[in-house]
Amino acid sequence: MNYHTRKWVKPEDLNPNQSLFGGKLLQWIDEEAALYAVIQLENKKVVTKYISEINFVSSAKQGDIIEIGIEVSAFGSTSLTLKCAVRNKMTHQTIITVDRIVMVNLGEDGNPAPHGKTQVEFVKDRLNSQL
Ligand SMILES: CC(=O)SCCNC(=O)CCNC(=O)[C@H](O)C(C)(C)COP(=O)(O)OP(=O)(O)OC[C@H]1O[C@@H](n2cnc3c(N)ncnc32)[C@H](O)[C@@H]1OP(=O)(O)O
């Protein structure tokens, strides 16, 4: 699992219980998954198709620094299946896990289109191969 993005839990991210609002966390996860898929598939037209069971393991509070981890579970023909975990940056306590997030690659017409990818790629390698 690679943890790419860090977030600082601010007052506007809290629920009435003064802990991190679950909906805000899911918004961050959806954006992280979308960004990951856009970069991997080299296509800005990627949508979230399916999100599996979500386990809110522990809560985060104001001032906590959390980090969002994503890893690839499977490359499909038009889909990319991801796994996600969010943890406290300082303690590594797990906050949430999402087993499967299915992102779908779309063509210009908005319909699912094969992405042609079969393995994780790194931007630095793509840039180096252009030299
Ligand atoms: C980042 C964001 O927030 S995006 C906004 C929220 N998301 C959206 O608005 C998406 C709305 N949904 C849609 O537009 C449509 O459902 C589409 C275009 C994504 C997919 O349409 P479908 O008719 O389901 O397409 P299709 O049957 O060809 O399936 C496409 C892929 O999704 C997979 N898939 C479809 N349904 C499911 C499902 N329920 N669970 C898991 N994977 C699924 C398929 O296996 C296929 O993957 P593959 O080609 O790798 O085998």
UniProtKB/TrEMBL annotation:
The keyword Hydrolase applies. The keyword Hydrolase applies. One of its GO terms (biological process) is fatty acid catabolic process. It comes from the Bacteria. One of its GO terms (cellular component) is cytosol. Belongs to the acyl coenzyme A hydrolase family. This is Thioesterase. It comes from Chryseobacterium aquaticum.
